[in-house]
Amino acid sequence: MTYIIAEPCINTKDTACVDVCPVDCIHPTKNEPDFEKETKLYIDPEECIDCGACEPVCPVEAIFEEAATPDKWKQFIQIDADFQGAPPETAAPLFVISRGQTAP
Ligand code: SF4
Ligand code: SF4
Q1: Buried residues in 28-50 as b, exposed as e (16+ CB within 10 A)
Q2: Distance, CA of 74 to chain centre
Q3: What structural domains does the chain harbor?
Q4: How far is the CA of 25 from the centre of ligand 1 (A)?
């Protein structure tokens, strides 16, 4: 089990969650080179200890326990996992493809 970050983080990205995570598993942080080009932050499912500290501090309610993720945002479970497992230049197109599925 892990926590995930869904659509409301996109272009909000205020990093309030990063500040409270005890294991630093939310990326990219403001100090990481990919911060500016990413539209949201991602939780590393391998590192997350499920403490739940990040969920209440998110101002836009973008963070969910994986099992509690609303159906409309289930794809973000994989999107967060993909970001941690691949270089950002690979993860970003995956996200675009996922978003594009609902486009006309
Ligand atoms: S649940 Fe805890 S460990 Fe997991 S991302 Fe949130 S603050 Fe970090
Ligand atoms: S607190 Fe919420 S909006 Fe802010 S970076 Fe984290 S997930 Fe995104």
Answers
A1: beeeeeeeeebebbbbbbeebee
A2: 12
A3: 3-98 (3.30.70.20)
A4: 7
| 27 CB near ligand 2 (under 6 Å) | no
6 lines ligand 2 (CB under 6 A): no
Q: Which residue puts its alpha carbon closest to atom 2 of ligand 1?
A: 51
**Ligand 2 atom 1, closest CA:** 58
For 40-68, write each residue's pLDDT tens digit: 999 999 999 999 999 999 999 999 999 99
Instruction: Return d(Cα 15, Cα 26) in angstroms, integer.
Output: 9
